[in-house]
Design brief:
By secondary structure, this protein is α/β, with parallel strands linked by helices. It has a domain of 84 residues: Ribosomal protein L13 (Ribosomal Protein L13p, Chain: A, Alpha-Beta Complex). Helices cover 30% and strands 17% of the residues. It is built from six helices and six strands, in the order E-H-E-H-E-E-H-H-H-E-E-H. The strands form two sheets. Strands 5-2-1-6 form a four-stranded parallel beta sheet, with helices on one face. Helix 1 packs across helix 4 and helix 3 crosses helix 4.
């Protein structure tokens, strides 16, 4: 028996578009579901070395929630590459200024850290409110609530 791999041709034309409403969703659970769709883990053609995932649009990022004490304790760090250039921002401040970055960072942290992961991350679109400019792609609504309840 031989293993069948999908060819790399025609992957971009066959990608689906999904829209996910983040209102009331925990950020971590939302990020795991979105990352699995972006990476193609839910696709029967999934192959570890190919990007067979679909596009995901996350709306209402401003209304996502943090569970437990993460809202008070979580801090994002980055360095300016200058001496003494470590900058920190709390998740509450980041959520007030740029709520879409919180979702993007959570999802990107769950994707592979290589060229394949960067290609997967490009298929993620996050918007703070309910309007998005991707209606021409006819995105299908994806309900995350029903996937988490078992």
């Amino acid at each position: 028996m031989s293993t069948q791999f999908p060819s790399g041709t025609g992957l971009a034309e066959n990608r689906k578009w999904y829209v996910v409403d983040a209102e009331g969703q925990p950020v971590g659970r939302l990020a795991t579901e979105v990352a699995s769709i972006l990476s193609g883990k839910r696709n029967p053609m999934w192959t570890p070395f190919m990007d067979v995932g679909d596009h995901v649009i996350v709306i209402n990022a401003r209304k996502a929630v943090f569970k437990g004490s993460k809202a008070e304790q979580k801090v994002y760090h980055h360095h300016t590459l200058y001496p003494g250039g470590l900058r920190s921002i709390s998740v509450q401040e980041q959520f007030e200024r740029h709520p879409e970055r919180v979702i993007e960072l959570a999802v990107k942290g769950m994707l592979p850290k290589n060229k394949l992961g960067r290609a997967m991350a490009k298929k993620l679109k996050v918007y703070a409110d309910s309007e998005h400019p991707h209606m021409a792609q006819r995105p299908q609504p994806l309900d995350i609530d029903s996937r988490n309840k078992k």
